[in-house]
């Protein structure tokens, strides 16, 4: 991939997409795969905000049954199946055990009824292209068996629970990148580190008609006017801030922001996800993740500027307090157990609930005619699982506005770039035979990350023996650093270590590993010594637990 903004010559696009998270990525793919000319612009790095701050799940949203959002649950479960089909290296079935205690708001018999409804809404869950990903039906689990599966679960007042299946997302950051790469395959032009400074607007009879955007290349400092017939605002928690650039009345957009944080610790659970409730009846998960445990998430309204958001010690302490109510017999999870923490802001589209936890994850696709603006669409809300369907609906709207003949969507029926795999288990076995001198777990891990691009990765590894040296227990290596820079538009150490790879996603890997990555990145990107030191300082700051 190449940053188009560096060589932009002023051509007009059918559509400019603002935002390189999962919403912008799916919209760009949906539009380009239907034949529209598309430019995607992201002010930071792809998937650097909300889309990287997930629980690494693709799920139907079991809790939305309690708020009677049956349409959202059904759409989510249908999309869970679609995403499993089109991205088999990223999306995998995962078993969840929902524990029920006497204190919980939802008793066990109600949870059983909810499970039956969940199964009903997911009636087509095993209509999968890859039969190795078949998902079992739910089953009840006794308190005794829950304690066998999770010896550290609290025994007192444990009633029992339910085991059910949703899906895990191996790498939301690379999954988002998969949509962007697929958009590029169909002709989309994309650029990270390109900030929208303003809109290009024409006045016609009291109506503002958007004709493009004014963009600053954050790498070179150069400004560009990117011309388009239509602009779609996919800036997530920044959507209202983007919209304020063109509105006469500033700051009255009905967008709320919810904070969600996660922490990574040593291994606390084995093969199943432990799901429980806090005393305030909010769900949490302990997720098996790369021989560690991922714990999350919070859901609390955030008041403030999204650019100033960061995870706080108070937010971490609140999460630990809730989790420790239902987990940890001999020893509770302590602050010093935390290896890494991350968080992000979710955009919400309604304000009828006092607590953002109970707000919907529905989405809205709106034109701005009510504000006297044409040529601009804003997308607000939504969640990772429904992003592809959201994009399909958005581009249906775009096609109508542009007045072009209807073009059928293909995104539901085609693998993403790098994910062209019919049977993932067989794919791994084939690659393990091909690269027989490499540990089996390393091939499995890299197959999940790169899919069919794994051969290109190992081709880079063959350039230099140093590139083959592993950096962690998963087998990540320096070839991935080169791959990220040459093929995936990585420009900083954070891009490389937190989004293109998982080298730093389990916490600070140590000065030696950071030094090796920085030295190679410096060589590939022609950094000065001062720039390399600055990049090292930035990644070390990003990895500090507050």
Structure description:
The protein is α/β, with parallel strands linked by helices and 546 residues long. Among the domains are: 4-50 and 173-252 and 361-402, FAD/NAD(P)-binding domain, CATH 3.50.50; 256-348, D-Amino Acid Oxidase, Chain A, domain 2 (2-Layer Sandwich); 424-542, Helicase, Ruva Protein, domain 3 (Orthogonal Bundle). 32% of the residues lie in helices and 23% in strands. It is built from 15 helices and 19 strands. Strands 3, 4, 5, 6, 11, 12, 13, 14, 15 and 16 form a ten-stranded mixed β-sheet that branches. Strands 1, 2, 7, 8, 9, 10, 17, 18 and 19 form a nine-stranded mixed β-sheet that branches. Helix 11 (454-461) packs across helix 12, helix 12 (478-487) crosses helix 13 (493-500) and helix 12 runs parallel beside helix 14. The longest helix has 17 residues, at 70-86. The relative contact order is 0.15.
């Amino acid at each position: 991939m190449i940053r188009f903004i560096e060589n932009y010559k002023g051509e007009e696009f059918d559509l400019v997409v603002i935002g390189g998270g999962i919403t912008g990525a799916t919209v760009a793919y949906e539009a380009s795969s239907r034949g529209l000319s598309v430019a995607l612009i992201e002010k930071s790095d792809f998937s650097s905000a909300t889309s990287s701050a997930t629980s690494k799940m693709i799920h139907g949203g079991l809790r939305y049954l309690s708020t009677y959002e049956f349409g959202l649950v059904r759409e989510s479960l249908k999309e869970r199946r679609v995403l499993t089909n089109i991205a088999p290296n990223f999306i995998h079935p995962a078993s969840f055990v929902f524990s029920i205690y006497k204190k919980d708001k939802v008793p066990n018999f109600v949870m059983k009824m909810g499970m039956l409804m969940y199964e009903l809404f997911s009636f087509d869950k095993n209509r999968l292209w890859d039969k190795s990903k078949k998902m079992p039906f739910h089953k009840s689990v006794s308190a005794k068996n829950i304690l066998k599966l999770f010896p550290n679960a609290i025994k007192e007042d444990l009633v029992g629970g339910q085991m059910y299946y949703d899906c895990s997302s191996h790498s939301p950051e690379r999954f988002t990148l998969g949509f962007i790469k697929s958009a590029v395959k169909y002709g989309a032009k994309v650029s990270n580190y390109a900030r929208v400074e303003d809109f290009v607007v024409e006045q016609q009879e009291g109506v503002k008609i958007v004709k493009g955007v004014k963009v600053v290349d954050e790498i070179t400092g150069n400004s560009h006017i990117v011309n388009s017939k239509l602009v779609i605002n996919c800036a997530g928690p920044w959507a209202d801030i983007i919209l304020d650039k063109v509105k006469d009345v500033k700051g009255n957009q009905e967008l709320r922001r919810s904070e969600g944080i996660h922490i990574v610790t040593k291994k606390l659970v084995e093969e199943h996800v432990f799901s429980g409730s806090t005393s305030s009846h909010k769900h949490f998960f302990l997720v098996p993740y790369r021989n560690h445990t991922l714990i999350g998430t919070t859901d609390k309204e955030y008041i403030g500027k999204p650019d100033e958001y960061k995870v706080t010690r108070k937010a971490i302490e609140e999460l630990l307090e809730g989790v420790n109510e239902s987990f940890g017999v001999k020893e509770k999870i302590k602050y010093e157990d935390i290896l890494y923490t991350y968080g992000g802001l979710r955009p919400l589209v309604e304000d009828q609930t006092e607590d953002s936890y109970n707000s919907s994850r529905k989405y809205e696709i709106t034109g701005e005619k009510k504000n006297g603006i044409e040529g601009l669409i804003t997308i607000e809300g939504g969640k990772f699982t429904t992003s592809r369907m959201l994009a399909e609906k958005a581009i249906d709207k775009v096609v109508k506005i542009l007045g072009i003949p209807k073009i059928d969507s293909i995104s539901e029926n085609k693998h993403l770039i790098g994910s062209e795999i019919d049977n993932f288990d067989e794919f791994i076995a084939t690659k393990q035979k091909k690269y027989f001198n490499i540990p089996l777990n390393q091939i499995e891990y890299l197959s999940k990350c790169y899919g069919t691009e794994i051969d290109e990765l190992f081709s880079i590894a063959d350039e230099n023996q140093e590139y083959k040296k592993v950096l962690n227990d998963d087998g990540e290596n320096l070839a991935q650093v080169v791959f990220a820079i040459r093929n995936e538009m990585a420009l900083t150490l954070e891009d490389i270590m937190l989004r293109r790879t998982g080298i730093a996603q389990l916490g600070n890997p140590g000065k030696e590993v950071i030094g090796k990555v920085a030295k190679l990145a410096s060589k590939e990107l022609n950094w000065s010594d001062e720039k390399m030191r600055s990049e090292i300082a930035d990644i070390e700051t990003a990895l500090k637990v507050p």
